Amino acid sequence: MDEKSKKNLGIHAGLILGETICILAFYVEFRRATGGNTLSWAYVVEWPIFALYIIYMWRRLLREENMSVPSIDGPGEVPDEPDEPALVAMNNYFRAVHGLSENGEGSSDKKVSQNQAT
Known about the structure:
Elements: H1 3-34, H2 40-66, H3 85-98, H4 108-117
């Protein structure tokens, strides 16, 4: 069984477990409410709302799980067009603020000297 099938099976099992708990709790609270416990009427209304929320989450999780996710096997495609000047200027500013070189690596000496300067 592949990984996707295992996740889908777990999502379905969560639905069944959650709905079973909600149905049983609704039954118990309904019996208590009809027996004279007025507070249980609030729970009689609450448990079906929980059951609907479980169904909503079940559908959402299945939709997210079944969406095709691009693989991260390689570095990806590099765009042919150059970066915008504003983006390049912003990245250069951030590198200067954090003491990083062009490749993103910084030295501890630069960071110490920048901290002493401020």
